[in-house]
Inverse folding.
């Protein structure tokens, strides 16, 4: 018979099953110990750019995708700062002429020099003959006059003054050519690989190949850097401002009309030349969710503005935050422009806090006289009409809010209310007042679907109000006026 072999465990050795149990316990203990690592241990350094914008990646800041009809523009993108995501783009890495978007780099270098203590906002700069001779968009600086760096920044960013931008470059660089070298060096530091500057204004060069050029991706890097400076945002977000040149006031109006149109838009810069066409870098901040929109080479000013506003609004709406809200003053102005002077316009807000009358400024009027006449304060009058100084011009229309009988404490209406415009329309057959709702057509909308959203409004009413000849001609992104009885 064959004898069976027995496996004998050596003396002092553990049985196999105990070995595996101890191994598992040791692994669990090692994993637990690693979570309480000594903070003084030398860990490998992470390669982090100290200049990068910190982005949040939690679920509350997840981006959403949108599609846009971008045939009318050369290039652009829409960027969600909170999610650090480009949510739409076209030719994002291709360089195109950028016209006065050049002044964004001028403003960035100026504000960096201020923070480094090289100059201050109050530093006085004397206008040179070269700056006064600048062509194109200008604020008409006069040789020998003096302005502060802050005033020059406002003139360059708000009114796109070539003379102001040139003077800043000349002052900060010694000469424009030296400053342009700084601009290109700073662009390289920011990683703007597709960007080349040949001047500080954005004026077209004799040879089109030497025009200032950049790509949407590069302009995004520049915009993110500018967002670090509240002073730049404050200036870029002004719909108008007044600077003084040897005690002579110069009124500035922002070329970026979206700033004056919508509550949440607060920057940055427009640009136009024949070769660059219409360009715009805009930024909006709604409920602490900031977006940056970049559009290059739009066919017209209206196309540029409407495309930018629609893209930002559609993204906010996709996030469930609602669309951009019109400023009360802008909505009133649009209403008044379509009525006779003798008609009275009234604006109501969702809070029902006040009713506004439009007063046309007469020669010799002052804010104090108008405020006294209507029983309000000068500060209220300036706030309602977004007036920063004390200057008003004959013919200017001012909104005068007066307390409703049902309003509480006689307070003025809230600035960020959903605006409804009540005015007498010359297009209406009846003499009653109407409420105008502004509705932006979405993909898949029909006139019948839109009419069902507004009680008492028919397809014919919408077609008549908006002069639509064919119902099939309705395009997404179009803004319609929906008129209802007040």
């Amino acid at each position: 018979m064959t004898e069976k072999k027995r496996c004998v465990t050596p003396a002092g050795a553990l049985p196999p099953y105990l070995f595996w149990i101890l191994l598992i316990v040791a692994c669990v203990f090692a994993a637990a110990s690693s979570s309480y690592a000594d903070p003084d241990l030398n860990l490998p350094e992470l390669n982090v750019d100290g200049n990068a914008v910190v982005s949040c990646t939690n679920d509350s800041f997840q981006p959403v995708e949108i599609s846009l009809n971008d045939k009318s523009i050369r290039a652009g993108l829409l960027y969600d700062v909170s999610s650090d995501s480009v949510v739409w783009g076209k030719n994002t890495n291709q360089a195109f002429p950028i016209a006065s978007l050049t002044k964004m780099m001028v403003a960035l270098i100026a504000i960096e020099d201020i923070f480094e203590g090289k100059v201050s906002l109050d530093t006085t700069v004397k206008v040179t003959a070269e700056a006064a001779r600048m062509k194109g968009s200008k604020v008409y600086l006069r040789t020998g006059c003096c302005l502060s760096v802050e005033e020059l920044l406002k003139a360059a960013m708000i009114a796109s003054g070539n003379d102001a931008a040139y003077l800043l470059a000349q002052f900060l660089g010694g000469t424009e050519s030296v400053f342009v070298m700084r601009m290109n060096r700073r662009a390289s530091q920011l990683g703007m690989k597709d960007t080349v500057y040949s001047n500080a204004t954005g004026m077209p060069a004799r040879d089109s190949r030497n025009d200032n050029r950049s790509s949407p991706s590069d302009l995004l890097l520049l915009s993110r850097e500018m967002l670090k400076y509240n002073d730049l945002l404050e200036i870029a977000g002004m719909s108008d401002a007044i600077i003084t040149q040897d005690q002579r006031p110069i009124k500035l109006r922002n070329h970026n009309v979206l700033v004056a149109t919508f509550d949440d838009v607060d920057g940055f810069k427009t640009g136009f030349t024949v070769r660059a066409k219409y360009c715009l870098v805009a930024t909006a901040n709604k409920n602490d969710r900031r977006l940056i929109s970049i559009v290059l080479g739009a066919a017209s000013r209206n196309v540029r503005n409407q495309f930018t506003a629609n893209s930002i609004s559609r993204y906010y709406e996709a996030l469930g935050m609602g669309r951009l809200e019109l400023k009360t003053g802008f909505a009133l102005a649009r209403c008044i422009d379509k009525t006779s002077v003798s008609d009275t316009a009234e604006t109501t807000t969702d809070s029902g806090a006040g009713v506004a009358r439009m007063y046309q400024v007469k020669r010799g009027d002052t804010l104090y006289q108008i405020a006294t006449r209507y029983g309000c304060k000068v500060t209220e009058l300036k706030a309602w009409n977004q007036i920063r100084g004390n200057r008003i011009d004959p013919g200017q229309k001012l909104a005068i809010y007066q307390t409703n009988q049902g309003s509480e404490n006689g307070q003025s209406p809230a600035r960020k209310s959903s605006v409804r415009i009540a005015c007498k329309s010359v297009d209406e057959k009846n003499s009653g007042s109407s409420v105008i709702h502004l509705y932006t057509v979405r993909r898949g909308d029909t006139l019948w679907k839109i009419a069902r959203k507004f009680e008492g409004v028919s397809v014919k009413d919408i077609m008549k109000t908006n002069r639509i000849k064919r119902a099939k001609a309705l395009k997404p992104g179009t803004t319609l006026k929906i008129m209802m009885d007040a």
